[in-house]
Design goal:
Length: 81
């Protein structure tokens, strides 16, 4: 796993698996986190956490479970492209 933090934007980037850029898609969850999903396996390979320091001040972070993510219709459409 790798991570980086952009202090100016207050964004944390977590990467669990490295794949080629064209082999993943972005899906935003209800908390505003941006999930990077492997196009083939639909597994989370990375997460972008906006407003990171603000969220840390509120207490422990909850991030999506690594694994399969329920897809909505728009996500399914993106994966099929």
């Amino acid at each position: 796993m790798t991570f980086s933090y952009d202090k100016g934007a207050d964004v944390m980037y977590l990467t669990f698996e490295h794949v080629k850029v064209h082999d993943y898609i972005y899906v935003e969850n209800s908390e505003g986190d941006i999930l990077r999903l492997d196009r083939k396996t639909k597994r989370i390979i990375g997460i972008t956490l906006p407003f990171f320091s603000v969220r840390l001040k509120k207490g422990p972070l909850s991030v999506p479970e690594i694994g399969l993510v329920p897809f909505n219709e728009s996500a399914e459409e993106l994966v099929s492209r």
